[in-house]
Amino acid sequence: MLKDLKPMEIEARSFEIITELLGSRKLDPENELVIKRAIHTTADFDYADNLVFSPHAVKTGIEALKSGCDIVTDTQMAKAGINKTILASLGGEVHCFMADPDVAAEAKSRGVTRALVSMEKAAALPKPCIFAIGNAPTALISLEHLMEEGKLSPALIIGVPVGFVNVVESKELILEGHRAPYIVARGRKGGSNVAAAICNAMLYQIRR
Predict the structure, then answer these.
(1) Closest CA to 159 of 147, 150, 167
(2) Chain centre to alpha carbon of residue 98
(3) Residues 23, 192, 90, CA angle at the centre, nearest 5°?
(4) What is the DSSP letter of 17?
(5) Distances (CA, A) of 61 to 2, 45, 47
(6) What per-residue confidence (pLDDT) applies to 6?
(7) Mean pLDDT by 10 residues, the chain (208 residues)
(8) 3-state secondary structure of 38
(9) At what angle do helices 114-122 and 137-148 cross, to 10 degrees?
(10) Are 182 and 54 in contact (CB under 8 A)?
(11) At what angle do helices 101-110 and 114-122 cross, to 10 degrees?
(12) Which pLDDT score, from 0 to 100, does residue 3 have?
């Protein structure tokens, strides 16, 4: 018989089911809640294997959020999915420059993607940021180039674009570069919902 459960009860039961289905699989305690949040968002247990974390990436991200850092995304969908109430209480906000007229105009004049230009715009923000990339591999490529040139020092890169063209390669750039702490979904899977879920997993650890 179906039960009429409250939202928090549904979420709690969902995490219980995820734990049950993981069986004897042991997750790194530091990364466990991020991995389970990604699985909860997608119902895809591959994230138990394909999420790659630099040393203490989750702890680094949480400390950055506690210090009031901002989050930069590459889609309005990711921006919409991030818990802005908790983020604002910590002194941070979410930015997505993809639809800004100046970004669109510059991308057209240079013959490059808006994702690339939006990352360049984000590099001018006055405080460290977490970059949550769920759609555009060119955003990750731009971040790598900006870091290589010494123009950007992200607090954390969440690299989870989804798709087929340059997706795997852009993620490997971040993994191989070691220029910033990272959480990367190796392979083709990911998405704006996953990027937002990873941000929320860290925010919820601060406020719950």
Answers:
(1) 167
(2) 16
(3) 90
(4) H
(5) 39, 23, 19
(6) 80
(7) 73 92 93 97 96 98 98 97 97 97 97 96 95 97 96 97 96 95 98 98 93
(8) helix
(9) 40
(10) yes
(11) 120
(12) 65
Q: Facing residues of 184 across strands?
A: 52, 159
- Which pairing describes strands 129-133 and 70-73: parallel, antiparallel, or unpaired? parallel
Residue 115, pLDDT score: 97
DSSP one-letter code for 165: S
CB 72 within 8 A of CB 49: no
Beta strands in the chain (DSSP E): 51-53, 70-73, 94-95, 129-133, 156-159, 182-185
Active site residues: 40
Q: Which residue has the tokens 């510059």?
A: 106
> What is the distance between the alpha carbons of residues 169 and 65, in angstroms, rounded to a whole number?
28
Instruction: Quickly tell me which residue has 């340059």 as its tokens.
Output: 166
Residues in the chain: 208
Give backbone dihedrals phi and psi of 94, rounded to 5 degrees, phi first: -105, 135
Q: What angle do CA 5, 10, 14 make, to 5 degrees?
A: 145
CA pair distance 167, 29, nearest whole angstrom: 28
